Amino acid sequence: MKLSKWPEALPREGNQQFKKMKSISQWFEIYQINQETYAILEPNHSEEVFSFLVLGKNKGALIDTGMGIGNIFDEVKQLTQLPILVINTHTHFDHTGDNFRFKEIGCFDHEYELNNLAQGHANQFCKDFMSPQDYFDLPKNFDPKKYHIKPSCVTHQFKHLDQVDLGDRSLIIHHTPGHSPGSICIEDTKYHILFTGDTYYAGNIFIDLPGSNQQDFFKSIQYLNTIIENIDFLCPSHNIVYASKEVLISLKTAQEKIENQEVQSKVHSQSITYYFDEFTLRLPSR
User: Fold this and answer.
1) What's phi and psi for 204, nearest 5 deg?
2) Domain CATH for 231
3) What percent of the chain has pLDDT over 70?
4) How many Cα atoms within 13 Å fall on the side-chain side of residue 97?
5) Residue 36 domain-assigned?
6) pLDDT tens-place string over residues 105-142
7) pLDDT digits (tens, 9 = 90+) for 190-215
8) Within a domain: residue 177?
9) 31: Cβ–Cβ under 8 A, 6 or more apart, which residues?
């Protein structure tokens, strides 16, 4: 797959099928998935990261908090007055940037994820993602040279198949390691949405990062295929907000195609990229 180049492809066609809501800051675009679910996109950075606001009767869940460049707390508060629980799909910098603004924060109970949140991400690391070609129209008073992710305090440590009750809406935590050791996908039992984090998105899926594990990734994909009948569609965390659940089947067959050398690939110094119709996979080289 070749995803249309950022930023020329903006706004992406796959996002325009949803109603666009008014945002406070031009850093964000907000799309309404349904009357109780909102996707909050940061289109002005090449990461094109999505966070998701999921509303129940008594409480809201914010699935990830983005890059911490704009103030996602203000965007959430204009959409709901419900108390908010942040649920991190994993703890890479681009999904935890505004955690510190919230009182309740949950992630999977794994040392890797807990340490990331407790320590934050230093400027020495984050600055590599703030080259001038990586962004446009930054919020006022944001200094890209000082970009870092503040530590945050975890109040909820999730286990596999834990349920989060929002009031007339329940979320199931599915442990799906691979991209990171404590990565999760989140199943919305009311609207049958699977929020996939970075386990799947349209684009280059990285399984060659520190903490990534190729065998775990494909085991997670096999697992997600066992719950596919519970799901109507996917909401990934980058680039395009909607994906057909059938992409899980494509991910399942990808491993076999890679092993049988039936797929186009490109070799890098320490990894190999494999090209499929709906995605690419960047795996560590043997």
Assistant:
1) -90, 110
2) 3.60.15.10
3) 99
4) 20
5) yes
6) 999 999 999 999 999 999 999 999 999 999 999 999 99
7) 999 999 999 999 999 999 999 999 99
8) yes
9) 15, 18, 19, 20, 21, 38, 39, 41, 241
Sign of CA pseudo-dihedral 101, 105, 107, 112:
positive
How does pLDDT run across 21-51, given as a tens digit for each residue?
A: 999 999 999 999 999 999 999 999 999 999 9
Is 170 part of a structural domain of the chain? yes
The whole domain housing 232 covers 13-253
Neighbouring residues of 282: CB distance < 8 A, sequence distance ≥ 6? 204, 205, 206, 207, 208, 268, 271, 272, 273, 274
Provide the pLDDT confidence category of residue 1 given band limits of 50, 70 and 90.
low
In this structure, the chain runs to a length of 286
Is residue 176 in some structural domain?
yes
Domain count within the chain: 1
Contact 54, 61 (CB under 8 A): yes
Q: Cα separation of 110 and 183, whole Å?
A: 9
Share of the chain above pLDDT 90, in %: 98
Q: Print the SS3 string covering the chain.
A: CCCCCCCCCCCCHHHCCCEEECCCCCCCEEEEEECCEEEEECCCECCCEEEEEEECCCCEEEECCCCCCCCHHHHHHHHCCCCEEEECCCCCHHHHCCHHHCCEEEEECCHHHHHHHHHCECHHHHHHHCCHHHECCCCCCCCHHHCCECCCCCCEEECCCCEEECCCCEEEEEECCCCCCCCEEEEECCCCEEEEECCCCCCEEECCCCCCCHHHHHHHHHHHHHCHHHCCEEEECECCCCEECCHHHHHHHHHHHHHCCCCCEEECCCEEEEECCCCEEEEECC
Whether the ω angle into residue 11 lies within 30 degrees of 0, i.e. cis, is yes
